[in-house]
Specification:
elongated; alpha+beta; 43% helix; 15 helices; five-stranded antiparallel sheet; five-stranded mixed sheet
Length: 505
């Protein structure tokens, strides 16, 4: 056994290959949900720097939703494919957890065994030697075996860059897209150019990682494979075992690709089952990954007037007459007689509250950047009444209350199992309820709320992605357990798109 290629090294290498495939394929699913990339955080139509769709965006707000822009990708290329961003995000979360764990183990063992010295350059002459190898490859040649001890200088630079630069870069830009980080550490998100800067940089790092993998795997089979493959397959420096190692390597790569594709089809075969399997694992990652982030309890200004977006995406269209005759009647009367119901589901108490009563409560104004789990973002000055103040009109919080459920006059855009659309609702936990930045908004940028953004009243939960922010609010209620409502997952996007209940990440 060659001490330069121990079992742990080969095992972590193979595990990394499997997990990178899960990350890249689930990343394709997430990108296909909004196949456009911006550097601008207002995501205005026509300002994309890259797009994977021929669809033209209208310049008018509220006539085109982000779900209309979603593309269906084959399960052969995406995990799971066919417009399932919720499950794609779960697979991505699980993949990140295992990938980081595997990477930490790899790096610890790399330094504990001293094998780091063959990967990390220790002198500046690595650059001229790497250039020499590069020019040989450009000429379609192959550096002699003496260049490899066991890696040549170009490999050292590439491996060091991937392990210690690109991989951490992907982690850091991924963290910057979390609403909880945006609220608690806004300076960190600004460091990456905001949500869209982080998203675009994350994509570029994914491309770099993909290019490396293709070149790396290709060169394994093209550059001195009689040494490379026995090293990788058996950990031995024995060219006589090349044929055997070649067979093992090809079968392993084929098996891993088959495994990736099988994951997609197994997920699509029973999406609810996949959700039940994935959520407990991803919640561990949420708890120990960013669950330690404690959010601020006082209003604070992060964005200024200059940051306010000229264009604001939406997900969902205002209720139609078929969906809600009552909301249409309110709209036709300019919401003069609009009311909502606040309820205590635990004790079966309720009160009807007018829009004027809500406006009479202490006003909260908050300049916030909304981020949708599909990828778009927009910044606006929102005004409204704190959710706790509104619920206080009903009296003290019931002792058994653990969540607030906001129900809309509008319906879900679609259900994952194609059943009839149901009234949209979302549930948020007490920690989010009590945040200063959780309120019922009735203004945007100093004007009454736009119809397409939830008029006359919408929920704002600045600590979460947009799917928690119910528009066209009809009822807000204290509840004990969200498992008793809908499909028991905590909201319409959780039910209809199998999203995570935790919208902070």
């Amino acid at each position: 056994m060659d001490p330069d290629f121990p079992t742990w090294l080969r095992a972590t290498h193979l595990i990394n290959f499997v997990l990178i495939g899960i990350l890249l394929r689930s990343g394709v699913e997430m990108l296909s949900s909004l196949p456009r990339l911006w550097w601008r955080n207002d995501c205005a139509p026509g300002t994309e720097w890259l797009k994977f769709t021929r669809r033209k965006l209208p310049q008018e707000e509220g006539v085109y939703t982000s779900l209309m822009d979603e593309r269906s990708v084959s399960p052969v290329f995406a995990l799971p494919g066919h417009e399932n961003i919720g499950l794609g995000r779960h697979w991505h979360g699980l993949g990140v957890m295992l990938w980081v764990l595997n990477g930490v183990i790899y790096v610890i063992l790399l330094f504990a065994t001293g094998l780091w010295s063959r990967i990390i350059p220790t002198s500046w002459d690595v650059f001229p030697r790497a250039w020499e190898s590069f020019t040989i490859y450009l000429g379609f040649g192959i550096p002699s075996i003496e260049h490899f001890t066991p890696y040549d200088a170009l490999q050292q630079l590439a491996y060091t860059g991937v392990i210690f630069v690109i991989a951490p870069f992907m982690i850091l830009t991924g963290i910057a897209m979390s609403p909880s980080i945006r609220i608690r550490f806004p300076w960190y998100v600004r460091l990456w150019g905001g949500h869209q800067g982080a998203r675009s940089l994350h994509f570029l790092a994914m491309v770099a990682m993909s290019v490396f993998i293709v070149i790396h795997v290709g060169l394994v089979f093209l550059v001195h494979p009689e040494y490379n493959l026995p090293h990788m397959a058996f950990g031995v420096n024995d060219p006589s075992r090349y044929a055997q190692a070649f067979t093992v390597a090809v079968l392993t790569v084929a098996a891993v690709i088959a495994f990736w594709i099988a994951l997609s089809y197994l997920t699509l075969a029973d999406r609810a089952r996949a959700h039940r399997f994935l959520v407990p694992f991803t919640e561990i990652g949420r708890k120990f990954g960013l669950g330690w982030v404690h959010l601020k309890r006082t209003p604070h200004t992060v964005y200024r007037e200059k940051n306010i977006s000229q264009f604001h995406w939406t997900n969902g269209l205002p209720p139609t007459r078929d969906e809600s005759e009552e909301w249409i009647r309110y709209k036709e009367n300019d919401f003069q007689d609009f009311v909502i119901t606040i309820r205590d589901e635990i004790n079966d108490r309720e009160r009807v509250v007018t829009l004027d009563e809500i406006r009479a409560l202490p006003k909260v104004e908050y300049t916030a950047r909304t981020s949708c789990m599909q990828g778009w973002s927009a910044t606006a000055l929102w005004g409204g009444a704190k959710l706790t103040d509104v619920m206080g009109l009903l009296g003290p919080k019931p002792d058994a209350a653990r969540y607030v459920m906001a129900t809309s006059y509008g319906l879900a855009q679609k259900m994952y199992d194609n059943r009839p659309r149901e009234p949209f609702y979302s549930c948020i936990g007490l920690e989010d309820v009590e945040e200063e930045s959780t309120f019922l908004a009735y203004e945007r940028n100093g004007h009454p709320l736009d119809l397409h953004l939830g008029a006359p009243l919408r929920l704002r939960v600045e600590t979460s992605h947009g799917y928690k922010m119910t528009k066209w609010v009809a009822q807000v209620a204290w509840i004990a357990d969200y498992a008793e409502y809908g499909d028991g997952r905590g909201g319409t996007r959780e039910d209809s798109a199998l999203q995570a209940f935790n919208g902070r990440i």
